[in-house]
Amino acid sequence: MDSKQFIQQELNTQEGYATWAASYDQEDNALIALEEAFVDQLLEQVTYHKVLDVGTGTGRYALKLARKGAKVTALDQSPEMLAVAQKAAQAEQLPIDFQLGSLNNDLAYARDEFDLLISALMLCHVQDIQHAITEFARVVKVGGHLLITDFHPMSVENGWRTQFVQTGVKYLLPTMPHSVNDYLNALTNAGLTIQQLIELPVKDVPAGYMPAEIMHANADQLFCLLILAQK
C-alpha cells in the first residue's frame, strides 16, 4: 500500500497500537479519509442519545458524538490509544466515559443499553466476529443501530494490511481475512436487519492521501466497508 521501501516489522495488535498511538492522529490515513465522510452521512440517518464506541482508539467518533450532546461510553483495549483520547476529551471538557476492555470477553454492559453502537476500523483485528457482533446486538436497544466500518475484505485478500511507518520502519498489524458475507451473516445471525451496505474503492480516496501510482494501479479495488444495521 506504499510505493517506498522500508524495513518491515510485524507487531501484534496490542503492540501495534501502543507504538502508533502518539502519532496516529497526525498521519494522513487514506482509509480514515475515505471512511469519515460516509460515516457522517450515515449518522445523520439515525437518532441516538446513549452511544457505545467499541474500539474507540484515539476517540475519533467518541469526541464527535459527544460534541453533538450524546452520552458516550468509549471502549478500547489499548491504554496508549485511550490516553490520547482522554487528553483530547479533557481539553474540550467532554464527559466521555472511557473504559479499557477487550472483545475477547463479553461486553460489560446491560442488554438493550445503547441507542447506537459504532465500531470503526476494528473488527479486522478480531478473529471471532460472530461473537463480537452478537455482543454488539445484545447491548443495543430494540430499534437502535449498529454502525460498522472496516478495511474491505478485497483489500485484505490482495495483501493489504493495517500498517504505519515510523523512523524508516513499516509496522504491520494482524488483519483478519473476513469476507463481506462473514460480516453480513454475523449481523443477521445476531438478529439485526441490514439497512445499508457501502463498499468504497481506492479511486474514491481523497487526493493527497495515497501515492498516485498506488491509486492508479488499484483504482477499482474495494478499500472500505461500511454497514448500518438495526435491531
Automatic annotation (TrEMBL):
One of its GO terms (molecular function) is S-adenosylmethionine-dependent methyltransferase activity. InterPro entries: Methyltransf_11, Methyltransf_Superfamily, SAM-dependent_MTases_sf. The keyword Cell membrane does not apply. Pfam families: Methyltransf_11 (PF08241). Keywords: Methyltransferase, Transferase. Gene3D superfamilies: Vaccinia Virus protein VP39. One of its GO terms (biological process) is methylation. It comes from the Bacteria. Residues 52-148 form the Methyltransferase type domain. This is SAM-dependent methyltransferase.
